[in-house]
Amino acid sequence: MNNCIFCKIIAKELAVDLVYESESVVAFKDIHPLAPVHILIIPKKHIATINDLTGNDFELVGKMMMAAKQIATDLAIAEKGYRLLFRVGEWGGQEVLHIHLHLIGGARMHEEIYPVSI
Ligand code: AMP
Ligand code: ZN
Fold first, then answer.
1. Which of 39, 36, 14, 12 is nearest to 28 (CA)?
2. CA–CA distance, 101 with 39 (Å, rounded to integer)
3. Domain segments of the chain: what residues?
4. What is the pLDDT of residues 14-50, one digit of tens each?
5. Any catalytic annotation for residue 32?
6. Which ligand is closest in space to the CA of residue 6?
7. pLDDT by residue (tens digit) across 57-82?
8. How far, in Å, is the centroid of ligand 1 from the Cα of 5?
9. Distance from the CA of 110 to the center of ligand 2, in angstroms?
10. Nearest CA owner, ligand 1 atom 13
């Protein structure tokens, strides 16, 4: 959509380190990783924030979550554990207005790594 950086990634106009692709979901390495594993899982459909979800997106959000589980398993971090994060809107610190699920792991997480400090 328009100037959305993640839509450009989906359209292959911007190169990323792709780790997963299905008919409705794409996942790639975060360009500024917070941990040894930091993947962004996004829907191919442009949805600005979690607040913009409709009932029709129910299955799509489930697919994003299932992709997270699949990627964690493929990257061999599933058993040790990891974190999943959606930032929402201004106060949530969301910078890219195309919903994305952060998959963060590969090391034991301390609270200072988890980006929730206020
Ligand atoms: P958020 O603050 O939740 O909106 O997260 C946006 C994330 O997108 C940040 O962690 C950025 O590092 C990441 N990001 C922005 N542009 C790119 C890009 N071109 N490729 C990969 N990750 C990106
Ligand atoms: Zn978009």
1. 39
2. 8
3. 5-105
4. 999 999 999 999 999 999 999 999 999 999 999 999 9
5. no
6. 2
7. 999 999 999 999 999 999 999 999 99
8. 9
9. 31
10. 30
**One CATH from 3.10.20.10, 1.10.150.120, 3.30.428.10, 3.30.70.1140 for 5-105:** 3.30.428.10
The amino acid present at 106, given as its one-letter code, is G
The number of beta carbons lying within 10 Å of the beta carbon of residue 47 is 19
Largest CA distance in the chain: 39
Q: For residue 95, which atom of ligand 1 is closest to its CA?
A: 4
Q: Which of 32, 46, 98, 100 is catalytic?
A: 100
Q: Is 7 helix (H, G, I), strand (E, B) or coil?
A: helix
Q: By C-alpha distance, which of 79, 83, 72, 90 is closest to 114? A: 83
Ligand 1 closest atom vs CA 100? 3
Q: What is the pTM of this model?
A: 0.94
d(CA 70, CA 64): 10
